[in-house]
Amino acid sequence: MSIDQIQHFFLHQVNLNILTETMAVLGAAARSPSAPVRCSWTAVASGDTYMLAGIGAGFQWGSLCLRHA
After folding, report:
1. pTM reported for the whole predicted model
2. 20: buried, middle or exposed (CB in 10 Å: 19+, 13-18, 0-12)?
3. Concatenated DSSP letters for the chain?
4. Do the beta carbons of residue 62 and residue 53 sit within 8 Å?
5. CA nearest 43: which of 35, 55, 3, 30?
6. CA 23 to CA 32: how far, in whole Å?
7. Which member of 6, 14, 49, 60 has the greatest number of CB atoms within 10 A?
8. 55 pairs with which residues across the strands?
9. Which domains does the chain have, with CATH numbers?
10. Could you tell me if 3 and 35 are in contact, meaning their C-beta atoms sit under 8 angstroms apart?
11. How far is CA 12 from the centre of its chain?
12. Phi-psi domain of 18 (left: phi exceeds 0; alpha: psi -120 through 50; beta: other)
């Protein structure tokens, strides 16, 4: 699945600089109003694909990609 197929990104990381850089590297900052600052589950519509991710210190991370039924 490519980045262009994901409508929403829900990221957990306390440091806004890390979130901003992550979205810039993904090339998704401009089209992801729900991330990095605010998560709005009401914005997820049926059929949307979204990415849940947690980013920690020392390059610790985990992610999950889901499609809303």
Report:
1. 0.63
2. middle
3. --GGG--EEEEE-S-HHHHHHHHHHHT-GGG-TTSSS---GGGPPTT-EEEEEEE-GGG-EEEEEEE--
4. yes
5. 35
6. 9
7. 6
8. 61
9. 3-67 (3.40.47.10)
10. no
11. 9
12. alpha
> What pLDDT does residue 14 have?
67
Is the pLDDT assigned to residue 36 strictly greater than 50? no
Contact 26, 18 (CB under 8 A): no
User: Pairing state of beta strands 49-55 and 8-12?
Assistant: parallel
pLDDT tens for residues 14-30? 677 877 787 788 776 55
8 A C-beta contact, residue 10 and residue 48: no
Q: Which amino acid is at 23?
A: M
d(CA 51, CA 7): 8
d(CA 7, CA 44): 8
